[in-house]
Amino acid sequence: MAGRADGTRQREAGTGEHADWAAELLDHLRPAGRDVHRVVSWLASAVHGTVSLQDGTGRLLAGTRAVPDDSPLADITSGRIATAALEDRGRHLRLVRVERVHPAPAAVLAVTRETPFDRRASDIVTHTAQVLELLLAGHESTAAGHRLRRATADLRLAILQLLMVEDTVSARRVAAGLWPGLLDTDTACVYVVECGAGERDRLTEECLSVTGDLALVVRCPAMDDHVIVLSPHDAAGQELRALVGRLPGVFLGGSARQSLARTATAYGQAVSALAVARFRPQQAAVYAERTRPERLMDPAALHGWTARLLRPLDRLPHHTRAELLATTRLGLEFTAVNTAKILGVSRNTVRARMDRVETLLRTDFGDLRVRATVHLALSAQAGLDQHGAEGGPARPGPASLTDVLAGPALGAWAGDLLGRLEPDARNLRRTLRTWIAAGGNAERAAQTLGVHAQTVREHVRSAEPVLERQLLAAGSDLYEVVLAHLVAGDLAEPALPGTKTDHPDSPVHG
Fold it and tell me: Which residue ranges does the record assign to the PucR C-terminal helix-turn-helix domain (predicted)?
């Protein structure tokens, strides 16, 4: 009786010990504790031994390497045997196969200790191997999911970059595999969604969710708080507006509908509209909502001047010409670094392409007036290629920039825009005019005005909400304001082919 009672107490004690280590092991499956290294460390402590987890190639996944060279490691990873136990120079070794998600090779859990493995230690090793299988499967599935999402995101970016350089054939070919029919269209709108720092991943998922297969959603490679959405379908744009309306601190800028070959132009329009959206209660704006100066110009004069200005590029092969035009459009909107990120090339490549355009056009992009007028020509060229010359054939004879900037409608637009600055007692209009003439350099403008450079920057910054345009960042907004100054006669016309100006370097009007 005494012996049987002692045996019962031993079994009960063993059961309690099993419950203790099993509970500890199960804790490692909780969401906060799923770590292979922690499980291996726990096993080493639980069995008072040395533990390693390595794959079939011998790569150590966790723990401390302690497997003899003559162990049946290869037999276990190949599947010929599932477990092995042996003694080596007074040390006891237990090897257990740990399955992994295909195609990853199986791993081996190796445990060595100085005392033989009793029932308790053997059970702990066996159950730990099962837990490690679950953890490895979860980690590998998660990693595979991350790799798939990253590859998909990279593919979306590659498609966008092909469209940016007008290679629509390659873009359609790449998109057909994953998103069949997405680019089976001639036109699309581009949207740029802006969010707070650290929120872009969540916003990207939201954009993917609401647009489904109706749009191409890309994390902007240049701006960390932007998501670019190219949508051939109007429904996607409506969903994006609804999404932005539900999210405080998120803004949406959209382009006018453009041909796929003019994706770079559409992107610039979306960024410009985004600046307006920041001042709108609905947090969204579309580029077409604002009167564009080129719409107020004589179409024949505009297209004739554009053709004359860009004629040196017409002699280039089509692919080279498209590449230079796309790079220059973006390079006039953004810095060389950001343009390079958007196009997926080096910044030296961007600068080389723009230098070549400068040389062909015999001009200098360091002059804001030149940048604004060339930007006007590129926008007009994009519209001409897409819609044709809506105003009929180009005006016979050499059209000049003076002809393009003439007309009562354009004059009224410029007067209204710049007139918004007049009520400010700081004379923002004079500061802005001088700053533009100085190439956007606050220090040079300050010397001319006899004030501090910071005062110039503050005046320019103060003009932004009044004009509803970004000025300190080069782009469409700034170029429209420059054109307004040219139309109003506040700035002299730049020296450009197709510009009829007797004194291109004449001083700024007082």
Answer: 337-379, 428-472
